[in-house]
Amino acid sequence: MTSPTVTALVCTRNRGASVAETVRGIMANDHPDFEVHVIDQSRDDTSEVALAEWRSDPRFHYARSATQGLARARNIGFRRARAGIVAMTDDDCRVPSDWLRRMTAAFSAGDTIGVVFGNVIAAPHDQAKGFISAYHRKALFVAHGVRDKPKVEGIGACMGVRTDVWAALGGFDAMLGAGSKFKSADDTDFAIRALLAGYRICETPEAHVVHHGFRTWSEGSALIGGYLFGIGAMLAKHLRCRHWPVLHIVRALARRWMFERPVVEFGFTPSRLLRLSGFAQGFIAGAVAPIDRRTVQFAVPEEAAAHESAIDYRPIRPD
Description:
This protein has 319 residues and is an alpha/beta fold. It has a single domain (6-309), classed as Spore Coat Polysaccharide Biosynthesis Protein SpsA, Chain A (Alpha-Beta Complex). It is 36% helix and 21% strand. The chain has helices at residues 16-27, 46-50, 70-80, 99-106, 163-168, 186-196, 217-240, 247-259, 272-288, 302-309, and strands at residues 6-12, 34-40, 60-64, 85-90, 93-94, 113-122, 130-132, 141-143, 159-162, 200-211, 214-216, 291-292, 297-298. Helix 7 packs parallel to helix 9 (272-288). The longest helix is centred in the C-terminal third of the chain and has 24 residues, at 217-240.
């Protein structure tokens, strides 16, 4: 069987109707040669049922996993992917019909492009009641090293990775990202490790997704605090591994904290105290957590590793 050119990966948890809309947009893409993998960590079968309409399409692949955490789900998806490029989006995003074509085109900037980020646009929403996080870049930029990382701050909701780069780096850090101990920053950490390994990162405004992840204002503090918590833990890990170039990132964060708005758009400017508190708590937690210096990843508890080795893969149920 010939391998597809690109794999679209969606990781989901308890969002049946939403993930079905995400997959519907991907399946309607105009790319001539792609596959779709959904990794479902839901507690029930709502998502499985919602996705059943694609069970007869050979491009569609579904796996149910008893694991928890976005980074773990992404790693499962990469192990199953057959293409040389994996394009990722979230289960609360919608993609245009040219998304896969534009994501793969961004890798053509050179063989050393290991990671691509596109724009994340907030869907229309009532700004009086809450916000949707977003990220916009106006012009293409290629980061050549960690010194350039503060200029590329894309997020995993619109992210592409070469599968050989994922394998070379040992995958995403399973202790980072939504649903994990350190709550966020699995995408940022992967980008930093890619730059440290000599790969380049391309950010392009030509590819985008629309984010429907609405949060009320009361939910904002927990979201932003968790985001900074993960960044703090992740940077502590790299400094413990003596990756001194990441100090450029720490300095950029400090400058933003003092003088600028966050690069991820929240619809408002979070308080400096909230951002500093989240970062400091995460940094302390990351400074004492066990790490594997060989892989530059936090050590996964033995029981979690054993649980992951017993993943329950289940295809869409036949009629």
